[in-house]
Design brief:
By secondary structure, the protein is α+β, with helices and mostly antiparallel strands. It is about 20% helix and about 40% strand. The strands form two sheets. A four-stranded antiparallel sheet has the order 2-3-5-6, with helices on one face. A two-stranded antiparallel sheet has the order 1-4. It starts with 10 loop residues before the first strand and ends in a 13-residue tail after the last strand.
Length: about 130
């Protein structure tokens, strides 16, 4: 195969670091293994972040997500680990990871984890008429 799964997350310089703006990415094909049964768990991951100096490069994100395919992980643990790795890679002002796991045993699980840089304050909401 020309590409392989990888835990390496690449970044690039934020083209507009003076402005708060939101980047949203949807990963509809995330898979890992249930640590109890070894069966596959499927999820859609939603990454939302306000970048600071660096942005996540998308191909490396795809290969990073792929790297979990054969790893056993509880939903809560894998969601928080992914958030930690993304924050370590790009040091955003704010990041939220929402992991929507598909039904297993009649139960849907959604895990939401957030990171906020201590010095960052979100802008006031704007309400348009």
């Amino acid at each position: 195969m020309p590409t392989q799964p990888s835990k390496q997350l690449d970044t690039f310089p934020n083209p507009t670091p003076e402005r708060d703006y939101t980047i949203r990415m949807r990963v509809p094909e995330f898979t890992c293994l249930c640590p109890k049964t070894g069966q596959p768990d499927f999820a859609t991951l939603h990454v939302e972040y306000v970048p600071d100096a660096r942005c996540i490069e998308l191909k490396s994100l795809k290969l990073y997500m792929w790297s979990y395919r054969n790893e056993g992980a509880f939903h809560e643990a894998v969601t928080n680990r992914i958030l930690d790795d993304l924050v370590k890679a790009c040091a955003p002002r704010f990041m939220r990871l929402t992991a929507e796991f598909y039904v297993r045993g009649g139960i849907y699980t959604t895990v939401i984890a957030e990171h906020r840089h201590p010095a960052w304050q979100p802008p006031a909401p704007v309400t348009l008429p």
